[in-house]
Amino acid sequence: MANPIKRLLGQTAIYGLSSIVGRFLNYLLVPLYLSVFERPAQYGVVSELYAYVAFLIVFLTFGLETTFFNFLQKDHDKEKVFQQALTANILINGLFAVFLFVFSQSIADAMLFGDHAEYIVIVGIVVMLDALSSLPLAKLRAENRPLKFATIQFSSIAINIVLNLFFLLVLFDPARPEEGVLFILIANLFSSLIKPAMLYKDYLNFRFQPNWDLLKEMLWYAFPLMIAGMAGIVNETLDRILLKQLLYEGTPQSLLLAEDQVGIYSANYKLAMLVTIFLQAYRYAAEPYFFSQAKDENRDKQYRKVMNIFVAVVATIFLVVTLNIEIFKGFITNEAYREGLKVVPILLLANVFLGIYINQSIWYKLSGQTKFGAYISIGGAFLTILVNVLFIPTYGYMASAWATLIVYAAQMIASYLLSRKYYPIHYNLRKFFFYLGLALVFFWIGKKIEFDSKWLYYGTRNGLILLYLTVVYWLERGSLSSSTKQP
């Protein structure tokens, strides 16, 4: 039979084509935003709004994608599982829609956007459209139809890019920066509409016939995942919100300065999120793969191999960005934002730890003990809030960067220790520490390298990256050549 790890890598590549390439194309919009928004505060508004989007998408999807994959393994009637999951999704989003339209102005006031309640309404509609599309897209993943999945994602991304270019390069007046924010949100609205339009058959075939027993069981499984996801988003994006709220001193000038901090931090965070782009693509393929391997007698062996390769890949991304930061900083087109480049290595390493934690988290999903995911994420959320609240007033966005690193490292360690007790997966810790430690040593060596010649400077630094990849390939060549019998 085909090597399951090769199959996982292959599907990751296809999902990654829509995720990595798509996110990269969206990343190319950031230099556009930085060039049209002359002051960081203006980009800070966009970044803050999308921080709230992250919270909403977790709540409105409610962990139902993972729940859907889990219940597929338990129930042979796959259509019934899908219909009930979609029923729950529609009910949750329907209740949110009522709340949004009744309280939009009050929400805008609380977020310090009192003059722009329309931002809140558009953001809410965008998130509902994305949430309602999540299960039909998950169904494509369960059916191993990555090409259709990629086509839908690319179509959405293409519309978003085209509309952003048209609105900001043709219609936008820099004298009215609030219009630029509105244009970005409208472009996102239309790009989100394309997903349900291309998945219309799933909605036409939907029948509202709730099976309350099954729905209760699914929601009971999903609720801890939603809590864990919500707490995870606290760790990922709450710093943008706290920066504004904690640095705002009640005056228009302090609000502008607080939004400057948000804008600078968010622009540089984008460079650190190159690891996260890979994580998104990987997760699309990994969740169905891990569940499909759950009953295989060689399960531990496969999970161990995947972890080894995963750590090496994310560590390589860390090296590529940090050792070529002089090249990557060209992504930040406005000099006013570049003072924040010092957070990039910290946030990159933080996202490496996040990726390892996500990879480990399969233990509580397979064992049905999703409450532990909630406990870990809630603990991380508490730590995130504590560090940010204590140190943002003094250190600004640097406090947020270090808080991110501390929290993700703590979650990674906590998840491993709990898995050893409740659902042991015997990872190769020697390889884990070797790959991570070698990447950090090469980073330290590369930072010490100084040559007047750019050829020598970049050649030596990238030589270290090639050496790292050579070592990994030599140690992992057997993992990609051996095959494992499928269940």
Description:
- The protein is built from 20 helices and no strands.
- The chain is 82% helix and 0% strand.
- It has helices at 4-27, 29-36, 40-61, 64-72, 78-110, 117-142, 146-171, 177-198, 200-204, 212-247, 252-272, 274-292, 299-322, 325-328, 344-360, 362-366, 371-395, 397-422, 429-448, 454-481.
- It has one domain (4-481).
- The longest helix has 36 residues, at 212-247.
- The radius of gyration is 23 Å and the shape is globular.
- The N and C termini lie close together (10 Å).
- By secondary structure, it is mainly alpha-helical.
Which key features would you list for this structure?
487 residues; disordered C terminus
Question: Helices, strands, pairings?
Answer:
Layout: H1 4-27, H2 29-36, H3 40-61, H4 64-72, H5 78-110, H6 117-142, H7 146-171, H8 177-198, H9 200-204, H10 212-247, H11 252-272, H12 274-292, H13 299-322, H14 325-328, H15 344-360, H16 362-366, H17 371-395, H18 397-422, H19 429-448, H20 454-481
Percent of residues in helices: over 70%
| CA-CA gap between termini | 10 Å
User: Per DSSP, what share of the residues sits in E-state strands of 2 or more residues?
Assistant: under 5%
Task: Report the order of strands and helices.
Answer: HHHHHHHHHHHHHHHHHHHH
Global structural class: mainly alpha
Summarize the structure.
With 487 residues, the protein is mainly α. The chain has 20 helices and no strands. The chain has one domain.
